[in-house]
Amino acid sequence: MRTPRQGPAHDTPGAGSWRAPHRQDRVWARASAVMPPLRSPATRGELMQIVKAVVAGVLAWLVADDLLGLGSAFLAPWTALLTVHATVYRSLTRGAQVVGATVLGVLVSYLVVEMAGYNAIALGAAMLVGMLAGLLRPIRNEGSTVATTALFVITAGQAEQAPMLVDRLSATGIGVAAGLVVNALLVAPLDDLSARQQIDSVCRRLGTLIGNMADEVGSRKDVDAQSWIEQSRQTDAALGRAWELVRHTREARFANPRRLPQDLGPSDYAALLLRLEEGIAQTRAIARTIDQAKGGHTGWSEQFCPRWLHALAVLGDQLEHPEEEARSQRPELESLVAELSSTDLSQDHWLAYGSLIDSTIHISDVVDDITASRRVSV
Questions:
Q1: Rounded CA gap, 148 and 126, in Å?
Q2: Could you say which DSSP state residue 329 is in?
Q3: I need a labelling partner for 65 at 20 to 30 A (CA). Which of 4, 15, 31, 92 fits?
Q4: Could you tell me the CA-to-CA distances from 302 to 254, 299, 345, 359 in Å, in that order?
Q5: pLDDT under 70 in the chain at which residues?
Q6: 130 touches 149 (CB < 8 A)
Q7: pTM above 0.85, yes or no
Q8: Residue 12 pLDDT
Q9: What whole-number distance in Å separates Cα of residue 360 and Cα of residue 283?
Q10: Structure confidence at residue 1 (pLDDT)
Q11: Cα 212 from Cα 308, distance rounded (Å)
C-alpha cells in the first residue's frame, strides 16, 4: 500500500532529500539524448530492421548479379532496401508501391532518352516527371523512388537499350522478393512488447496521480488542483502514444509467423486503453470538483473524507501494483453512499460528495477491469 506523505518535508526539497545531479548522470543523459538506450524495445527493433535491410540488399545483389548475371543488378539491392519496413504488412503494401514506382522510373528514363537523348535536359525532365508521379494515389509518397530510379538508369548509360528493360524489371522483382522474405522470416517485427510497456506506464502514471491526490487532500492543507489537471493531460498524451503503438501492433500481427494465439492482441490492448481513457477523465473530474468546491476541502465531514480518501488511495495503489491482490472498492463506496444518505448535510457538501463518490465508483470499475487484464498478462 501507498505510504502517505508526512508533511511538507516530503513536498519541498531539503537537506538529505535532494542532491545535485552527478557528473556521470549528466553525461549519461546527454549520451541517451544522442543514442537511445539499447534496452528499449523500440531501439532494438530499429537496429534489427537495419540489419535486415542490409541482409536483404546483399541477398538481392547476390541473386541478381552472381546467380542470374543481370545487367541492371544494382536495382535489386536498391529495391530491397526500400521494401524492408517495420512490419510485414507494410513491406507488402509498400513493396507493391516500390515495384510500381521502380517500373515507372525505368519506363520514364527509357522514353525521355529516346526523345531527348543523353543530356542534362533529359535528366531534369525524368526527375521532374518522377517527382510529379508521386502525386498519383497508387504510388503516393514514392515520387522520389521514381525519380531516383530514372536517375540511376540514365546516368548508367543504359536507358535507351530496349533489351535491358526485362533485366531491370527482373532486378526490381528480385529486390522486392528479397525484402519480403527477409522481413517475414528473419525475426519478423511484432512490437507488442512496446505497446504493453506503454500501457503499463500509463497505468502507473494514473495510479501515481490518484495516490498523490489522496495524500494531498488528506493532509488538510491547500492543494493545487490545477496541477493535477495538468498531470492528467500529460497522462492523456502518454495514452495517445499507447494508441499509436497498439495500431502499429495490429499492423505488425498481419501475416506474422511470430504471432502466438495466447498472447494479448490489439483488440485486448484497445479495450484496456478505452478503460484508461475513462479513468483519466474521471480523475480529472475529481480534480475539478475539489478545485471548485465551495469552502474548500478542509471543512469536509469526518464521516465522508477518511473513507473516501482510503478508497481513492487503494485505487491508485492497485493501478501502480496490479500484481497484488486487492478487493474492489465499489462495495465500500456504495456503503458510504448509504450511510451519508441518512446524514443531514448542507447542499454544497452533498453536491461535492455526490460528484466525488460517483467519479470514484467509475474509477473503481475501471481499475477492476484493468487490473484483472494486467494480472492475466503478467
A1: 9
A2: S
A3: 92
A4: 56, 9, 12, 20
A5: 1-45, 86-91, 157-163, 187-192, 251-267, 294-299, 323-324, 345-348, 374-378
A6: yes
A7: no
A8: 35
A9: 8
A10: 45
A11: 14
Judged on CB neighbours under 10 Å (0-12, 13-18, 19+), 111 is middle
Distance CA 298, CA 307 (A): 15
Query: Alpha-carbon distance 340 to 353, whole Å?
Result: 9
CA dihedral 311, 315, 321, 323 (to 10 degrees): 90
Say which amino acid occupies 183.
N
Q: Which amino acid is at 67?
A: L
Cα radius of gyration (the chain) = 30
Name residue 231's amino acid. Answer: Q
**Assigned CATH for 192-377:** 1.20.58.220
* Residue 283 · residue 209 · CB < 8 Å: yes
Give pLDDT, residue 262. Answer: 47
Domain range list for the chain = 41-185, 192-377
Sign of the Cα torsion 126, 130, 131, 136 reads positive
